Amino acid sequence: MMSLWVAIGGVLGTWARFALGNWVARKWMPLFPYGTWIINLTGAFFLGWLAGREAAGTLSATWYALLGTGFCGAYTTFSTFCYEAFFLWWEGNRKKAVVYVATSLYLGLLAGGLGLWIGVGRI
């Protein structure tokens, strides 16, 4: 049964990534890969928050499977991040590539940590 919850979360996460990514790309993609950047940062925050709620004992394993493994697993995208970073570098936008990688890493860790901190009730 847990696999079904993961699958349902995956469908919802995939749809959310598709919708948000396309909306952001239509507005700002020529400048920077903001769609993937925003998706991965919000996904890191949400997964951190979910992990905090689970650690605090206020989120069941079923909800974590649905939202953490399913939704966040499908919503966030490491492969697209790698492709976009490589493509920026390949096209000669080396400064943008470095900024993209550095901000994704550092802000992603910060977002995940903040989500965890809020999730366990420290804020």
TrEMBL record:
One of its GO terms (cellular component) is plasma membrane. Na(+) binds at G73, T76. Na(+) is not transported, but it plays an essential structural role and its presence is essential for fluoride channel function. The chain crosses the membrane at residues 31-51, 63-86, 98-120. It comes from Kyrpidia spormannii. It is found in: Cell membrane. Belongs to the fluoride channel Fluc/FEX (TC 1.A.43) family. This is Fluoride-specific ion channel FluC. One of its GO terms (molecular function) is metal ion binding. GO terms for biological process: cellular detoxification of fluoride. It catalyses: fluoride(in) = fluoride(out). Fluoride-specific ion channel. Important for reducing fluoride concentration in the cell, thus reducing its toxicity. It is a multi-pass membrane protein. Keywords: Cell membrane, Ion channel, Ion transport, Membrane, Metal-binding, Sodium, Transmembrane, Transmembrane helix, Transport. The lineage of its organism: Bacteria, Bacillati, Bacillota, Bacilli, Bacillales. It holds the Pfam family CRCB.
